[in-house]
Design a protein that fits this description.
Blueprint lengths: L1 H15 L8 H14 L5 H18 L4 H13 L3 H14 L3 H13 L3 H22 L1
Helix pairs in contact: 1-4, 1-6, 2-3, 3-4, 4-5, 5-6, 6-7
Length: 137
């Protein structure tokens, strides 16, 4: 349970960081509807699956809309669909490389028993962290 909470909070922190790219208005609307749906009544698994359908629509409208991918990643982690979550993390890392998503991917790989891959991804996250640190200092 702590693993899921850690990944969720890491992704929420990442999603809250400022976004400078303008995205398709319809994609943003689908994303917002998906987030509201999660907060509604009923079975959480059903709400998350319906939320993912809306997030898929957001992604179809604007494949660059990183926030929709991040929210989909959070949903998949909560649903314990780690293989799909890894695929989504890969897309996010192509669109917007980050320490948080790399670390989350490493955790997901570890959770799936792929420790060697997890170690490689974690090392890449550390390299990225050093690069970002060097840019700021």
């Amino acid at each position: 349970m702590r693993f899921i909470l850690f990944l969720t909070f890491s992704m929420l922190h990442y999603a809250c960081q400022s976004q400078t790219t303008s995205y398709d208005h319809k994609a943003i609307e689908y994303n917002n509807r998906a987030l509201k749906l999660i907060q509604g009544p009923g079975d959480i698994s059903t709400r998350l699956e319906k939320s993912n359908a809306l997030l898929d629509s957001a992604i179809l409208n604007d494949p660059r809309y990183v926030i929709a991918y991040q929210n989909r990643l959070n949903n998949l982690i909560t649903l314990k669909k780690y293989d799909l979550a890894i695929d989504v993390a890969d897309v996010i890392l192509v669109l917007k490389p980050s320490i948080e998503v790399s670390t989350a991917k490493a955790g997901l790989l570890h959770q799936n028993g792929k420790d060697m891959e997890a170690s490689i991804v974690l090392n890449e996250a550390i390299v990225l962290a050093h690069e970002q640190y060097d840019k700021h200092f």
